[in-house]
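Attaching the record inline, Q. Sequence:
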Amino acid sequence: MDAELVFIEDLAKGMQTGRSPKEGLGIDRYRIDGLFQRYQPDHLTGPEQLDVLRGFQDILGREISRLEACENRFSDLIARIGQAETIQEVRNLHCDLTALTIRVFQETGSVRNLQEKCTRFRQEITCRLISFVEKQMLEEGYGPPPSAYVWISMGADGRGEQTILTDQDSLLVYQDIPRSRQRFEAEVHKKLIRRDIRESPLEESQVDLVDSYFEIFSRKMVNCLDHVGIKKCVGGVIPTNGRWRDSLKDWIDRLKQKIKYGSGTITILDLIILMDARSVAGDRALGGQFVGRFRDLIEKTPSIQAEVAKSAVLMPVALGFLRRFRTERSGHRRGKFNLKLKGWAPLVLTLRALAMKYGIKGTNSFDRIRSLEVLGLISPTIASDLEKAYRLLLSIHIRKQIESIKLRKRFDNFFDPATLSEDEQTQLKNSLLRIEVLQKLAHNVFFPGRLG
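Structure, as predicted:
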């Protein structure tokens, strides 16, 4: 059994042995509604008014106590990450924190709270594992990092929108050291020249020793993350892939080659992924330089912005003729659609394109919606509708992840809308329509006067 399934198995056990959702974290809404209906001062005596208000006070007091206890539990577990001495301890804490986050979501239904918690504790996990890998490199005779470096997340983690089960989308940037100035002890030099006993020895002139160091470093880090339950990216968007690991200078040179001249190894899809970059561990100042230079290049190149926007506004949602769900017609996924690719991805991509055009620095999708509203680019009604749409899509996604964990099987993004009630199906259709509204708005921004 691989690391992903082992983590899912442990999560399922943690959900069974953890505190029962019946204990509740949410306010008793039925009682609150009843109190609101009762509290009509023009119909009540003074003592009756006090009785109703004391009812509010009692509910709020208990709710505050429960929430404080829950937040304290999270804080305690997160603090223990920084004190963990082994990778197994970190893995156990990751499992405990994820299981606790699931229970809180089941009780409150808050998508934003779940995203914030998952993003926060996984950042702490990444930082702790970085320290472990640095120690391993020392113990194995490679020495300390030869230059400053930064570990940068993208995708959902870059946007601060992680959910229960996630994978790695990351890159590594290290500070430039010219080959003529690269200095390593003789034994380390030999190890880096011949990085793997299965390889033939390379000529020194062929090897960038600093990159060799960070290649080994990245391999260890990616494996550590996979071991603790954050699986490797199937698409290879990880620093073990040389395309996602480079010096700051070489990164910028490669970005310029693509953005200014339309050539090189970087693709439009790579640029889209990079738009959610966020420094997680290492030298944050170096990360800031990288992200700043990248944004500057994009913002000065309308043609690249247009290409990014085109991919966003033309991405179809799972809604077809007469507002029917567009699902797979055959195979084992018949009647289902990819909730990510035909659900929230068109929304996330369109918000990303608009944020880049208007210089919005934040990467979180909810923050991007609010920023577009503040700038007057969308109305408060559209902003509210988009937030509701995104929350609904993510809520369905999270519930499906929880179901997958309970069944102890791998999660995929395919979803059968027939499993929803009639009212929920209507809400889902309305959410997809709201995303199409944003796509049309973005189309008019980037391609005025052209048919969509």
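Residues 307-446 form one domain. The beta strands are 149-153, 170-174, 245-247, 278-282, 337-338, 414-415.

More tomorrow.
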